[in-house]
Design a protein that fits this description.
Length: 214
């Protein structure tokens, strides 16, 4: 089973409830969406074919138990489910970032799916697969990337539909870099009594001049 891999790197987890922890990232090639604020356009097409054993061998080199599969959109490649299974079998803690437009149950539920719900300013919110709300588990995380106040209102409404078992610390509100300041988003969260975690992209704070490998 081959996957098209854009990059594999070792860095600090910059987002999610695991922010701050060392993590191995496997960035897969390809995405079915074109969000207005995308910061990984280089992953749309660039990549090298690798087998799952080759990927596992490279991950093993870093001696790190936390692995995140990201993209692009990992679920556009059929081999992603195989990679997740093999990582779980090898006792890694596995995260997968996904844009929320495809069935998240394509991968094992023991993988923590970090699922976007796209807001209007992304230009892709009509493609949210809302059936994914029924597929979430307490192991998953939900992310809203917010560019303006309309996005915030949309995120607040959608967050109210999330299952009650999903703890507030697994509901992530993140500001679009260059469009909305974290300070303003923080004020909206506090004034709105929103039960969610303000997420700052830690890797961009640490390495503001680097676009890849972080």
């Amino acid at each position: 089973m081959n996957l098209k891999v854009n990059e594999i790197f070792y860095s600090i987890q910059g987002e999610s409830v695991h922010a701050g922890l060392p993590c191995v990232f496997v960035r897969l090639t390809g995405c079915n969406l074109r969000c207005s604020y995308c910061d990984t356009e280089y992953a749309f097409d660039e990549g090298t074919a690798m087998t799952v054993p080759q990927i596992l061998e490279k991950i093993q080199y870093f001696d790190c138990s936390l692995v995140e599969i990201t993209g692009g959109e990992p679920l556009v490649q059929q081999g992603t489910s195989v990679l997740v299974e093999d990582l779980l079998q090898a006792r890694y803690r596995v995260l997968m970032e996904t844009n929320g437009s495809l069935d998240i149950d394509r991968v094992n539920r023991r993988c923590s799916r970090i699922m976007d719900i796209k807001c209007p300013s992304s230009g892709e919110h009509a493609k949210n697969d809302l059936d994914n709300l029924k597929r979430l588990t307490a192991n998953d995380q939900v992310k809203f990337v917010i560019g303006d106040h309309d996005d915030f209102l949309f995120a607040r409404q959608m967050a109210s539909l999330l299952p009650e078992f999903l703890c507030p610390d697994r509901v992530l509100f993140s500001a679009v870099s260059g469009r909305l300041s974290p300070e303003r988003l923080a004020r909206w969260i506090l004034d709105g009594r929103i039960k969610a975690r303000l997420q700052v992209q830690l890797h961009k704070v640490i390495w503001p001049d680097r676009d890849r490998g972080v």
